[in-house]
């Protein structure tokens, strides 16, 4: 179950930031519109395994190195991030996400009412997913310092793409 801390805007155009702990069952979690109820298809699963990102209407699947509870930061911004240090991240992907409800849920196919919702204005967003710490996993894949950052800003719905690919086989994939 994700845990949520209060939003803490940073000095730039970040409007809200949330620190979550999300159970990544089957080596993935979803960022989804609160009303979306995606059903993974074979193509969705193949994309998630290949690129660590997949989309369905109102939902974005994010691949993880561990099938455990992982740290996830969600940032909502007014504009795209600029002047980023991509060297600090192992794998970076991007896709579009449409939000109708005004709330997103970050979980693993779990929409129970007690899970925290993140308020976000309805609309179309670009979602960039940053992954780090892939080389920190224990031999059994249960422990590690892998972490995930999701940055959302108003943008076009676009097909998933890999902006920076991890050069080794993705752990847990």
Give your account of this protein's structure.
The protein has one helix at 42-51; strands at 3-4, 14-23, 28-33, 53-56, 59-63, 69-77, 91-99, 103-107, 118-119, 123-132, 147-154, 161-164. By secondary structure, it is mainly β. It has one domain (3-164): Competence, DNA-entry nuclease inhibitor, ComJ (Substrate Binding Domain Of DNAk, Chain A, domain 1, Sandwich). The strands form 2 sheets. It has a 7-stranded mixed beta sheet, with no helix packed on it. It is globular.
Spatial strand arrangement across the major sheet: 1-2-6-11-10-7-12
β content, as a range?
35-45%
What is the overall shape?
A: globular
The CATH superfamily title? Competence, DNA-entry nuclease inhibitor, ComJ
CATH topology category name: Substrate Binding Domain Of DNAk, Chain A, domain 1
Evaluate the radius of gyration.
15 Å
Order of helices and strands: EEEHEEEEEEEEE
Between the first and last Cα atoms, what is the distance in angstroms?
A: 22 Å
**How is the biggest beta sheet arranged?**
7 strands, mixed
Overall number of structural domains: 1
The count of helical stretches stands at 1
What CATH architecture label applies? Sandwich
Would you report the number of β strands? Answer: 12
Which spans have pLDDT < 50 for at least 5 consecutive residues?
1-11
Average pLDDT works out at 89
Helix content: under 10%
The secondary-structure class comes to mainly beta
CATH hierarchy class name? Mainly Beta
Summarize the SSE layout with pairings:
Blueprint: E1 3-4, E2 14-23, E3 28-33, H1 42-51, E4 53-56, E5 59-63, E6 69-77, E7 91-99, E8 103-107, E9 118-119, E10 123-132, E11 147-154, E12 161-164
Parallel strand pairs: 6-11
Antiparallel strand pairs: 1-2, 2-6, 3-5, 3-8, 4-5, 7-10, 7-12, 8-9, 10-11
């Amino acid at each position: 179950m994700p845990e949520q801390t209060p939003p803490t805007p940073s000095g730039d155009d970040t409007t809200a930031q949330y620190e979550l702990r999300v159970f990544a069952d089957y080596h993935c979690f979803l960022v989804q519109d609160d009303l979306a109820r995606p059903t993974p298809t074979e193509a969705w699963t193949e994309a998630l395994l290949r690129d660590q990102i997949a989309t369905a209407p109102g939902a974005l699947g994010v691949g993880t190195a561990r099938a455990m509870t992982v740290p996830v930061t969600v940032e909502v911004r007014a504009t795209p991030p600029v002047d980023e240090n991509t060297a600090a991240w192992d794998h970076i992907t991007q896709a579009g996400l449409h939000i109708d409800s005004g709330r997103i849920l970050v979980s693993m196919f779990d929409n129970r009412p007690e899970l925290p919702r993140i308020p976000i204005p309805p609309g179309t967003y670009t979602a960039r997913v940053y992954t780090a710490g892939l080389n920190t996993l224990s031999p059994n894949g249960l422990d590690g310092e892998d972490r995930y950052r999701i940055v959302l800003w108003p943008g076009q719905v676009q097909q998933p793409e890999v902006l920076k690919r991890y050069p080794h086989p993705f752990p847990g994939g």
